[in-house]
Amino acid sequence: MHLSAEWLAQLPIPQVTAATPVSGGDINQAFRLVTAEGPYFLLVQPHTPASFYAHEVAGLTALSQAANVPEVFGSGEINGDAYLLLEFLETGTGSQYDLGQTVARVHQVTAPQFGFDQDNLVAKLPKNNHWQDDWTTFYLEQRLDPLVQRAQEHGLWNPQRATAYQRVRQAIVAENQNRHIVPSLLHGDLWAGNYLFTAEGTPTLIDPDVLYGDREFDLAMTTIFGGFDGDFYKGYQDTYPLAPGYAERLPHYQLYYLLAHLNLFGETYGEAVDMTLNRG
């Protein structure tokens, strides 16, 4: 996408003297903007209403209560294209221990129920965040079940997976029955690509998909694709210790992310889904 001078002039910032494409994820077009005041980070979704970025803005606002996040300078629609204008952060290196403490502080922000004020309807796998009093109901009916249904519709399911899933479903109900689960603020997509360290070494969370849920759900994502070391978990545990049995429950939360990837990328993730289902 080429951003014309006329398009750029409608942004709520001083005159843009350069707009350079940069890496910004697989669903957005991203640019580094140069102005007299300094650089900005711009995300654009062509031919899309301004509401496209509403959930991300709400997520950054929520996370900012406990973590460093890019400042939001504006969002809206220009010539039919949705945009989100953010602080441009120069990156550096930092401490995994500090990152763990940051995530723990985010999880200490709580709500009365599970869910969020708005759904995330713009992702490749839309999410229903309607409020629930019971976490197990939310997790099964608003996270796992929709992914299983989509897998069925796209020929990515079979009788063996269906049988194993029903067994896992019952196990989740049983293991959560006597747990006290607090609705914690979750990043929602906590993989290594969604955190950075600023030039000063400050842990910073980006590209959230927030909800209030079981904090173990957020941590499960950190265990799948790498990017978080032992110092991260030590920093987390020192700040907000996890309840006994966390490691045994972990596969039931890893299952969600693996099912999501099965739906997005097909049978490449089939073996990982089957192994997780068969663990019960």
Describe the overall structure:
By secondary structure, the chain is an alpha+beta fold. The chain has helices spanning 5-8, 54-63, 96-107, 135-153, 159-176, 215-222, 230-239, 246-265, 270-278; strands at residues 16-22, 29-35, 38-45, 72-78, 81-87, 184-186, 195-197, 203-205, 211-213. The chain is built from 9 helices and 9 strands. The strands form 3 sheets. The chain has a 5-stranded antiparallel β-sheet with strand order 1-2-3-5-4. It has a two-stranded antiparallel sheet with strand order 6-9. Strand 7 (195-197) and strand 8 form a beta hairpin. The radius of gyration is 20 Å and the shape is globular.
End-to-end distance: 47 Å
Question: Helix proportion of residues, in percent?
Answer: 25-40%
Determine Rg (CA atoms, Å).
20 Å
The number of helical runs is 9
Number of strands: 9
Overall 3D form: globular
Largest sheet: 5 strands, antiparallel
Instruction: Report low-confidence residues grouped into runs of 5 or more.
Output: none
InterPro entries: Fructo-/Ketosamine-3-kinase, Kinase-like_dom_sf
Keywords: Kinase, Transferase
GO molecular function: kinase activity
Protein name: Fructosamine kinase family protein
Topology of this structure?
Blueprint: H1 5-8, E1 16-22, E2 29-35, E3 38-45, H2 54-63, E4 72-78, E5 81-87, H3 96-107, H4 135-153, H5 159-176, E6 184-186, E7 195-197, E8 203-205, E9 211-213, H6 215-222, H7 230-239, H8 246-265, H9 270-278
Antiparallel strand pairs: 1-2, 2-3, 3-5, 4-5, 6-9, 7-8
